[in-house]
Amino acid sequence: MIAVDAFLADSVSAADGKLHAQGAGWNRIYAAAIPTVHGRIGLGLILRIPAASAADPHALEVRLQGPDGAPVRLGQATEDPASAFDRIQGNLRLDPPPPGSPVQEEEVFPVALNFDGLPLERAGTYRFVVAIDGADVREIAFGVAQAASNTTS
After folding, report:
1. pTM of this structure
2. Which end is more exposed in the chain, N or C (fewer Cβ atoms within 10 Å of the end residue's Cβ)?
3. Overall CATH class of domain 3-146
């Protein structure tokens, strides 16, 4: 079974088999007004794949659910609003660990995803859902609330 570790960040990238993150480790967004469009949310995933199944094809899917469980638009493929999508999908297959590798039990595969301009229509709890081979294996929740005003009348 593939295990998934995950975190939220302001931005995340992957290079040389490692994740690099800015502003990692949060679970709340405070907006001046709701609905809002959030500039960027980074999602870092670390897939730990058993070496015995690393060479097998695996399907990866990431989607975002709003407070009511409905899908949240993640982006658009083109300038056409009709091309909006609500999930990221891909397939992966890894090489098994090389002979003599100090870790033979599993392969680690980092995934960096950045979502720009996310529409957050309501206050409440949003969840990124990660599915492997069609089964939901991890949820990463964050709350959205309206920021308190610092002005007095």
Report:
1. 0.88
2. C
3. mainly beta
